[in-house]
Amino acid sequence: MSAEVEHTLERERVPFVVRSFYFWGGADSDPLLPYLTQHYEPLKLPHAKGALPSLSPFRRRDDDANAS
Asked: Are the beta carbons of 27 and 33 closer than 8 angstroms?
């Protein structure tokens, strides 16, 4: 499934991606994290002090946006 998502993100050059939850345990537990960190940059949203955000937005890196 992650290969299909990666293919779609790459083909469509999706400008923003929002992850709706966190995978605990690092890149090994989240199959899309390596792709996201290579092609996207995390966006910081304001949240209450001490609260963990439930959404994790990413923006496609400029060098990737101009590649097509």
From this structure: yes
